[in-house]
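Protocol step 4 of 5: obtain the predicted structure for the target chain.
Materials: sequence only (see below). No template structures provided, no constraints applied. The aim of this step is simply to have a reference model before the mutagenesis design in step 5. Sequence pasted as it appears in the construct record:
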Amino acid sequence: MFFIVPTANPACRMYSQDFLAVVDDPPDAGAASAPGACWTLLIVDDDEDVHRATEFALGDLRVIGRPLEFLHAFTADEAIRILEQRPDVAVVLLDVVMEGEDAGLKAVECIRNELRLSALRIILRTGQPGYAPELEAIANFDINDYKTKTELTRGKLFTTITAAIRSFEQIRRLEASRCGLELIIAGASGFNPEQGLEVFASAVIAQLATLLGVPADGIFCLRHESDQGGNGSTTGQPVVLAAAGRFLLTANKALAALPDPRVVQVIESCLRERRSQHNGHSLVLYFSGRQGGDFAVYVESTAALPDIESHLLDVFCSNIAICSENVALVERLRTAAYVDDLTRLPNRVAQIEAIDRLGKVSRSQDRILGLIDIDEFSETIDAFGYLFGDRQLQAVAARLRAALPADVHLARVGGDIFGVYGTRDAVNPASLRSILVEPFENEAGPHTISFSIGFAGGAEADDRGAELQRNAAIALKRAKLAGPGNDAYYTAEVGMLTRQRVHLLHDLRAALDNDQLFVVYQPQFDLASGAICGIEALVRWRSGKGEAVPLDQFIPVAEQSGLIVDLGAWVLRMALAAQRELADHGHPLRMAVNVSPVQFRHHGFLRLVREAVAEAAIDARLLELEITESVALFGWAQTVERMRAIKALGASIAIDDFGTGFSSLSYLARLPTDCVKIDRSFVAALGNLHSGTPIAELVVQLGRQLGMRVLAEGVENPLQLQILRSLGCHEGQGMVFAPPMAQDELLRWLRGREP
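Step 4 output (structure tokens):
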């Protein structure tokens, strides 16, 4: 071992305490000799001793059988001039601190950005690492390595230089083969997976033949994953997916069927050994598909391939494998996006695109879209289970597919809705019902299914697929409103009404956000004493134009859209805040708040009631929630459970509009309610000689027998009041007592009643 100590050269005094240690390690004895060639190494350092020591240490080094040629530069500028004349330099050993603290880094920037020597490998050396932070240097520049002079032993120099030269050679080979490989890479990267695997396979054959400069006589073989045994052996025969040239007629055939056994043998060998093979007659590339199977590409070629390394071919084959997987993925995504998994029919998206395509190639005035909906399908599932429902859908799909003409586009566009698009001769109520009228066979025997159908199309209709489906859906909804087994056609009038409802919903959302809604309060009275016993909160809407929007217009829209949940929450909070103020003024009255069935079923309803009561700081016993009979459709057990939870909070429950919905005396007797309200339509009939008073009287008697309060709403005149008192009705509200009032008006009215 020996050490070379730096001289007193002024350029080196900044690191005069450092030294270059060179350890005598054995050279690469296994490298083969390659006479007549050498690797050029440029040493750039302002210390002459470093030049001598480096050359002495590396003088007998051979990399890949070649010796080293040394060039010397003592400044960064000198190094740049040498590289301008000698672009074949393989490695630069570059000092960082020379004529300047960052002279080496500036030289790197010039080498990469101005000289554009991308293959050249750069190894930074410094005796003062603080001037060139290692991480920053490596990150900002293409630098092979970064070493301090003190750590570069002979062995480390050997390792560093050898790795750099090998990297340089690989990059040069890559650059040398780039032109040829670009043809193949372009075939892979430019391939559109949507074109399909066969198109891709043909392109690979053509690109490989172009690369080799031979005619495109080739074969693209696929061995499916299922054709491989558990130990990796082949249990089936590969298939020719695509072929070109003299092999063209072999496409879509088993590989074993090829007339040339030599070709069969070399391809089978490639697939069996799972590696690319090249002999004097052909090149066979192997690449593995992780999901779709293994592939082999055969091209006849007698030429050697000195410029294309085998590992580069492996990389290319990997890229091809990825492309094949992309093809398979696209096929799966296409299936998922356009095919219904249960019935294997096209789905809604596919039908929309089909309608759009037909509209581009021909006038669709004679075509019509029908949406066929299975009536009461959800009830069928509830009764017989999802498996029965799936089989029913499959049976309907199979019958429609078998009976409809070939030019009719059939799709499953929704859960139990089928879309049928074709001419009026095929798509009309009579023809469709004739297909579906016969009972369907199932495990329990023949089963008749009722269908509702909505139609849209014709000369005046919008022939865009999405618009046509929307219109047909509107028609279907109207058909179902008319009852099971009906059909309806979309018309401009129907569309106008629908658009009006959409606009109304938009305006209602804006009204809720912009405080255009308000709450009025109508007193409720004890009919026996005449004393006020409660108040009902009623929501009102006055549009931006100052016009009152009828309740029966916007409440149904709010319920259908789900906006009723937010609207109901707002009304509840406003009503309880008003109740708090009334109590503070000496009027602790019961507050009745209407609750929509949609709101009642909402998962956050109980939490809302609890929070609203807490925010207003009121006695929950002064809160009465008015719900309609239709909440029982929620499910009996769930309805009772939720009503009991409400009563557990302290609030009372009233059944509103009793007798107008899904009335059932047994329901009323079993529901945990406190009050039943007689609908105003029955109150209005009181005193009518033709109608008499049977319904109102029945409700009063039923309520009293069940121990409930009975409240009549819409009491408008003294005669109605007199009859209700005679029937024994407990409470009432209406114009005969007091109209609905704003909160401040209600307070003044209550003060006026004080003795």
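Step 4 remarks: Confidence is low (pLDDT under 50) at residues 1-36, 226-235. DSSP finds 24 helices and 27 strands in the chain.
Proceed to step 5.
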